[in-house]
Write a structure and sequence with these properties.
Blueprint (H helix, E strand, L loop, with lengths): L10 H6 L6 E5 L6 E2 L4 E2 L2 H4 L2 H15 L3 E4 L3 H4 E3 L2 E2 L2 H13 L2 E7 L15 H15 L5 E5 L2 H9 L11 H25 L4 E7 L2 E4 L5 H10 L2 H7 L5 H9 L4 H10 L7 E6 L5 E4 L5 E3 L6 H12 L3 E5 L10 H18 L4 E7 L4 E2 L12 E2 L12 H13 L17
Parallel strand pairs: 1-4, 1-15, 4-7, 7-8, 8-9, 9-11, 10-12, 11-14, 14-15
Antiparallel strand pairs: 2-3, 5-6, 12-13, 16-17
Length: 422
């Protein structure tokens, strides 16, 4: 049985969700990679109509009862050059969020960089991005929660292993270059934000993965991929990678000094971090004897895989992304919502500090069936609202979930040593 109406009164919880100790969130989809050799920008804020309907969208977040919103200005339109910013859209949107009392989890880089930077092979990106993060923190000093670089692992994999986005590379050296560039940018951005907001909290939204062997010959491939899935978070938190991954990084162009940078700089930032886990039906993979994979569906599920990540890093957890198409019956997304929520409750019963849940995103998305790599304009019915801003069945269910659970949560014990805001 769950303990009813328990006050989760700990320092981090008072900062994250002072009224009830848990964040219910959604997000405005703002993926912005380039495809077709950089000639096409997939700006989901534009494609999903947010630029024209941003006030309506933010009002819908309030209507749902969400405490927090994963949201951010587009990097490619805001960072116009070194130290040159166009804050017009951010100023309007963040003023409205503040007025509505919605806490932004600021998404500063979501899968793409400005054209003038190029892609994630550019060694100047970490410095330029850190300067941008600091400028944002100075301009919006009331903001405390950040995801500097969204899904670092997926950004690197899709850009420089699968060859789908941005640099569209498929070799190991480009892949490791993307990893070290992306994670260094995230680390430097956290450090820069803390100069202006010493009690900042960083919620790393990262894809949570698991790889399974289809046959005995697939076991080495699964072992490698199950080590590789941790690379970005290991570096981001200053954790030593295992020996196989160390050899892979060194063989693929990372220098010892680059590796030592993460070991030296990242641990001091870890106490400001919450491990955000993103979970979809596509996050578990079945590998064959040649190492080629296909989606496995849910073998372990969110709670089992998240337990592995929590055991590795020992950080508080937030479920930062999930969604599902509503399906031919119209109720599959709603069933998925309750399945994810059940996993969260299971983790909390076991004493794992889960601080929040996110259905991503507020509205339907465009072309995610094709991972944005093909521009077809297909609508993916995964939002809490459709693109006409009419509530979907899962949106109504999420509103009911928030109303019924916000004051009734399992006991947890958590104390993260982050200075309280003045």
């Amino acid at each position: 049985m769950l303990d009813a109406a328990i006050s989760l009164d700990t320092p981090l919880n008072r900062q994250l969700a002072p009224h009830h100790g848990f964040l219910f969130a959604t997000g405005i989809e703002n993926s912005a990679p380039t495809i077709d050799g950089g000639r096409i920008r997939r700006d989901q804020l534009r494609e999903c109509g947010h630029y024209d309907r941003w006030q309506e969208d933010l009002a819908l977040v309030k209507e749902l009862g969400c405490d927090a919103l994963r949201y951010g200005p587009q990097l490619h339109t805001t960072l116009r050059g070194p130290g040159l910013h166009d804050w017009a859209f951010a100023d309007a949107g963040f003023a409205e969020l503040k007025r509505l009392g919605i806490r932004p989890i600021v998404d500063l880089c979501h899968f793409g960089v400005p054209d003038w930077i190029g892609d994630f092979q550019n060694p100047d990106f970490p410095r330029l991005f850190a300067d941008y993060a600091g400028a944002f923190a100075r301009r919006f000093p009331w903001v405390q929660l950040y995801t500097p670089v969204n899904e670092m692992f997926i950004t690197a994999v899709f850009s420089a292993r699968y060859g789908w986005w941005n640099e569209q590379k498929t070799d190991d050296r480009s892949y490791v270059t993307a990893i070290k560039t992306i994670v260094r940018a995230n680390v430097l951005a956290m450090r820069e934000i803390l100069k202006h907001r010493p009690d900042a909290i960083f919620i790393q939204s990262e894809s949570t993965e698991a790889f399974h062997a289809e046959c005995p010959r697939a076991v080495p491939h699964a072992d490698f991929r199950n080590a590789e899935r941790f690379l970005t978070l290991d570096l981001n938190y200053g954790r030593r990678v295992d020996s196989t991954m160390y050899e892979f990084l060194m063989d693929s162009g990372m220098t010892r000094e680059e590796y030592h940078f993460f070991q030296r700089e990242a641990p001091a930032l870890k106490r400001h971090c919450v491990m955000g886990n993103d979970w979809y039906q596509t996050n578990e993979h079945l590998l064959n004897a040649e190492g080629h994979g296909r989606w496995a569906g849910e073998v372990f599920g969110y709670d089992t895989v998240t337990r592995d990540y929590h055991a590795r890093y020992g950080l508080p957890v937030m479920h930062t992304e999930t969604n599902l198409d509503e399906g031919p019956r119209g109720d599959e997304a709603e069933h998925w919502l309750w399945k994810q929520w059940s996993g969260i409750l299971r983790l909390k019963r076991e004493g794992i500090p889960v601080l929040g849940f996110t259905w991503y995103s507020l509205t339907d998305q465009i072309d995610w069936t094709h991972a944005l790599r093909i521009q077809k304009g297909d609508v993916n019915p995964r939002g809490l609202y459709d693109l006409d801003r009419k509530p979907r069945r899962v949106g109504l269910a999420y509103r009911r979930l928030i109303e019924s659970w916000r004051e009734v949560l399992p006991t947890q014990s958590l104390c993260l040593q982050v200075p309280l805001a003045a």
